[in-house]
Design goal:
The chain folds into two domains: about 130 residues, Rossmann fold; about 110 residues, Beta Barrel (OB fold (Dihydrolipoamide Acetyltransferase, E2P)). By secondary structure, it is of the alpha/beta class. The chain has a five-stranded parallel sheet with strand order 2-1-3-6-7, sandwiched between helices. Strands 12-11-10-14-13 form a five-stranded antiparallel sheet, with no helix packed on it. It has eight helices and 17 strands. Helix content is about 30%, strand content about 35%. It is elongated and about 65 Å long. About 5% of the residues have low confidence.
């Protein structure tokens, strides 16, 4: 039974989002602490011991959360949350029941919590590791698109794309040569198919390529405006996603 939860997250909007989602999914659960650094987490776990579940970001203000395990033993289920998928296999060495990419969606969190309920605390035995790795599906991200061209088709590589956007209910890709091509797929589906280290969902209308970003400009109410090298779109990123965007560009 999940009754006591600790959140380790250094970005307040993400921590608040997790608290809200937990309140909706497990209203009886108590958030025992929200910790924003490796040092604070070490102090807390040494003093209070293990809760029923830890939701843990990987990149914290003073280091990587894996550093916590070098200083204190945590023997309860852990669900890692991060904007990056590069730490997946490493995460499963530390009692990880699941690994969720940000922004955390309610359904993904529900599935993770169900795993905690079903499997309980998993040790670092080979059997446990195999169970955990079973949840990690190899991701073959899309590298090209086949689009209509004249009397046939042409191939567009993802590296040729500056951004992908919606226009009059159509999904279009703006290429580096300034041309647009229509893609017969929604932005929501594309977000799952494209490599998150290269493409970022800036808002409901735009997915941007990392190499196409020229600069970020401060915008009203702590939002950011994305300026692209070869496109003049006005792309506004919410303040909730601004830090994720900066981390993505700085990785």
């Amino acid at each position: 039974m999940i009754e006591r939860i600790v959140i380790v997250e250094d970005e307040k909007p993400n921590a608040d989002r997790l608290k809200r989602l937990i309140g909706e999914l497990y209203p009886r659960a108590e958030i025992k602490a929200v910790l924003d650094s490796v040092s604070d987490a070490v102090v807390w776990f040494r003093e209070f011991g293990d809760p029923d579940l830890v939701l843990m970001d990987i990149r914290l203000s003073d280091g990587i959360s894996f550093d916590i395990f070098e200083k204190v033993a945590i023997d309860c289920p852990i669900v890692f949350t991060t904007a990056y998928d590069e730490y997946a296999v490493q995460a499963f060495k530390y009692n990880s029941v699941d690994y969720i990419l940000k922004p955390v969606e309610k359904e993904e969190l529900r599935i993770a919590l169900d795993k905690v309920q079903e499997y309980g605390m998993l040790s670092n035995s080979q059997e446990s590791l195999e169970k955990l790795l079973a949840y990690v599906k190899p991701k073959n991200y899309r590298s090209r698109f086949l689009v209509p061209f004249r009397d046939g088709f042409q191939t567009i590589l993802t590296g040729e794309i500056c951004c992908i956007y919606t226009d009059m209910k159509l999904t279009k890709a703006r290429l580096q040569n300034g041309k647009d091509v229509v893609l017969n797929i929604s932005l929501d589906d594309l977000e799952k198919q494209l490599d998150p280290s290269i493409f970022f969902r800036a808002n409901r209308q735009f997915i941007i390529h990392v190499d196409a970003v020229s600069q970020l400009v401060h915008y009203f109410n702590r939002k950011l405006k994305v300026v692209l090298h070869k496109a003049d779109f006005e792309i506004i990123v919410s303040r909730e996603k601004s830090n994720l965007l900066k981390d993505w560009l700085d990785s």
